[in-house]
Q: What sequence folds into this?
């Protein structure tokens, strides 16, 4: 295994000019786009998501931070699933599986992706969702232990998130299913949560997506 001297994203974002940050971030967008182009549009049964939801719900109820607020999440997701078509048309093909910024190493002239992960559905949409888990929902900031310029990093992430949204909103599958996939993605994290603060954060972010849909 090669040893790579690199920076994690917060350090890189703090130390480098925005044009350099944007150049590296464009590589992530290109990675997702290339995988979309190489994927095939396939039929995916709604039952796949129903079963995944039920499995997560069963595990989540066992979590010690389970609380009544989760009932709102259950109701929301069950409504979403019931409103899905019986057959979804999605691009299936290669994807990273866990493309958060914390799984990207930043070097002077390139990026390195680490910690590839199998997903219950192999679609490049999942990578876009995981990327926006950080740019929109700021997930990795919750896990960062060192001090950093919060205002600067949040501004950068907001700009990058608008770029992701602008780039992929032209795809029909993205317009139709992004929000649902993001809710399921955040929901999938919940059974592994080990503190009340993170659980509350995930509940808030899922409900925020619901409110955005209703606006």
A:
């Amino acid at each position: 295994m090669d040893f790579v001297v690199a920076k994690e994203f917060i350090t890189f974002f703090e130390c480098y000019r925005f044009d350099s940050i944007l150049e590296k971030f464009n590589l992530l967008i290109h990675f997702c786009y290339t995988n979309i182009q190489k994927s095939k549009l396939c039929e995916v049964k709604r039952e796949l998501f129903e079963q995944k939801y039920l499995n997560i719900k069963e595990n989540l109820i066992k979590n010690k931070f389970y609380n009544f607020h989760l009932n709102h999440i259950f109701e929301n997701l069950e409504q979403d699933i019931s409103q899905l078509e019986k057959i979804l048309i999605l691009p299936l093909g290669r994807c990273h599986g866990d493309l958060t910024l914390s799984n990207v190493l930043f070097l002077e002239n390139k990026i390195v992706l680490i910690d590839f992960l199998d997903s219950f559905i192999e679609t490049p949409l999942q990578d876009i969702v995981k990327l926006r888990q950080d740019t929109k929902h700021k997930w990795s900031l919750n896990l960062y232990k060192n001090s950093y310029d919060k205002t600067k990093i949040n501004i950068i992430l907001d700009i990058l998130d608008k770029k992701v949204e602008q780039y992929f909103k032209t795809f029909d599958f993205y317009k139709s299913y992004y929000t649902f996939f993001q809710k399921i993605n955040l929901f999938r994290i919940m059974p592994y949560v080990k503190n009340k603060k993170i659980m509350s954060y995930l509940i808030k972010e899922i409900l925020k997506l619901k409110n955005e849909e209703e606006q």
In short: The two ends are 49 Å apart (CA to CA). The domain at 9-214 is CATH 3.90.1200.10 (Aminoglycoside 3'-phosphotransferase; Chain: A, domain 2).
